[in-house]
What we know:
disordered N terminus, mainly alpha
Amino acid sequence: MLNQSISPRVTPPTTVASAFPPASSSQGLPSPSLAKQADDNAITPLLDGAPMEWSEEGVVFLHWCLLEEVNQLADPTAPLDEKFDILRWVFTEPEKDAKPFSFVSCLRVVGCSPLSPVAYCGLVDTEAIRDYIRNSLWAWFRAALERYPEWVRDVFIRNPLWIESRLAKNPQWINEQIKRMAVTGDLFN
């Protein structure tokens, strides 16, 4: 079972820059043997259908893997539907923050566990991390939208929630519309 107690080395909350290094940095990333062990012992389901036993280290590593998904927001090649899923997870309703595997819970577990694949940093300021993400979103989405036709960029800028609702129903919606436009020349035919 995951030890919920916080290390006696508790420090004041830190900001995103000092808490989790950028994905391109080798500092703070787990060793390949730790990743292999987590894959072998914690993430691979049992073939016989019996309940899976998780080690504490495997649970901490899973929290870290979920946080690593946030890096896709800055990746211009990541699919837009996945970016929207990540944003819903990061900016979920406050009453869900205390739930297991929520964004807040993942930050707490990874920041405070001695089994974390990153160096101990203690409690981090969740709102500072959310603010950093919020303030970076338009630049990240602009970079991601550069690979799409101009009409996709225009629709996204005018009504991102409409695009998000279409992608939630069908992750291939934009690709289908681009193909349709190439054939018919009219998006609304």
